[in-house]
Design brief:
Blueprint (H helix, E strand, L loop, with lengths): L3 H11 L3 H17 L1 H6 E6 L4 E6 L2 H22 L6 E6 L21 H11 L5 H18 L7
Parallel strand pairs: 2-3
Antiparallel strand pairs: 1-2
Helix pairs in contact: 2-4, 5-6
Length: 155
């Protein structure tokens, strides 16, 4: 019996998306294979037609060091990916994606709005004719003042 993944790979390759599919397979296991520190400094960017995984690093120093670690990284990727393992690894400096925010670090507490901030927000929105929009802008301005910690007001 043939695996569904094999069919998916053939269809993706026929549609010209084989490299993108392979990068997504690698990115799913990248952090587990290389660890948090390396994942913050280097991220898979593409898989070339010859199967080489191109990885972007935050600096040339990181790219150099990771090139030296490539046999160990390749071994870990092979253990995680099996037949989807890239044939080679290449590291180069460039931009990497920002890490996703940790849900535990996201706070949903409303800002503390003082009467002075509320008055400043009302002042900023005073020239708006639509009463509903004026109220929204006043609230947004007051909230912005509370988050920014600025006492300078608006220009």
């Amino acid at each position: 019996m043939e695996r569904l993944g094999d069919d998916a790979r053939r269809l993706m390759a026929a549609a010209g998306a084989g490299g993108n599919y392979r990068v997504s397979v690698v990115t799913n296991v990248w952090r587990d294979c290389v660890g948090e520190t390396i994942a913050r400094a280097a991220w898979p960017s593409r898989v070339a037609r010859d199967g080489t995984l191109h990885v972007t690093a935050v600096s040339s120093t990181w790219a150099f060091e990771l090139e030296r670690l490539s046999p160990e990284i390749a071994e870990r990727l092979s253990a995680a990916l099996g037949e989807d393992t890239p044939t080679a690894l290449r590291f180069a400096p460039g931009r990497i994606p920002e890490p996703a925010a940790d849900p535990a670090e996201i706070t949903a507490t409303p800002p503390e709005i003082t009467p002075a901030m509320r008055a400043e927000g009302d002042s900023v929105a005073a020239g708006i004719a639509d009463s509903g929009l004026r109220a929204l802008v006043a609230r947004a301005a007051a909230a912005s003042l509370s988050r920014g910690g600025s006492d300078r007001g608006f220009c």
